[in-house]
Design brief:
By secondary structure, this protein is of the alpha+beta class. The strands form 3 sheets. Strands 6, 7, 8, 9 and 10 form a 5-stranded mixed sheet that branches. Strands 2-4-3 form a 3-stranded antiparallel sheet, with helices on one face. Helix 3 crosses helix 5. It is elongated and about 85 Å long. The mean pLDDT is 85.
Length: 188
């Protein structure tokens, strides 16, 4: 799974910023400041309803600084909504994500060991996420997410190509105008 996502410029394991900053200590604030400086920021609107006054943003950071990448967690959130999602990667590894009230929970969107994953499931009934459904991401859902990401990347590449064509045309017009201006000065 991870190799497929990586080849298609789809990111996992982003560091999602917590919406409740006031509960964190000074160490967390320093760590987040360092993350903001060294990682690429991805921002998405968490509220799908445009009429809501309180618009919440999802802010995630990745150490992959390549442009045109798409976060897997955001597409999974858009496709499936709230829930606890996992993908079995290997014998002892799981990809793990929690989406609650349309927001990706900070500390998830990560790869965990099977022991940690099982412990999380054991702690679930006593947590604030007890009402969320636990779902394994199916191959069909995985393919839909990949298609959605590729469609967004295609739009990004078209915009990028249009930008560079515009820059090229602008430089060409500037060169022609400069040549005409220089010719008029020399011809006198």
């Amino acid at each position: 799974m991870l190799n497929t996502l990586s080849k298609k410029n789809i990111l996992t394991e982003l560091i999602w910023e917590s919406s409740s900053h006031n509960e964190r200590d000074a160490g967390y604030a320093k760590w987040m400041a360092a993350i903001r400086r060294s990682h690429r920021m991805y921002v998405y609107i968490a509220n799908d309803d445009a009429s809501q006054v309180d618009i919440q943003k999802l802010v995630g950071y990745s150490d992959n600084t390549s442009p045109g990448c798409e976060p897997f967690a955001v597409h999974l959130r858009n496709l499936l909504g709230d829930g606890i999602y996992y993908v079995r990667l290997a014998e002892n590894q799981y990809y793990f994500l929690i989406v609650c009230n349309g927001v990706i929970v900070s500390g998830t969107d990560c790869i965990v060991s099977e022991a940690f994953f099982n412990e999380m499931l054991n702690q679930l009934p006593d947590s604030r996420f007890s009402a969320l459904n636990i779902s394994e991401v199916t191959a069909a859902q995985f393919e839909r997410i990949i298609e959605s990401c590729e469609a967004k990347q295609l739009i990004y590449k078209r915009k990028q190509r249009l930008f560079w064509v515009g820059v090229g045309v602008g430089v060409l017009v500037l060169l022609i105008a400069s040549a005409i201006f220089l010719y008029s000065i020399i011809a006198g």
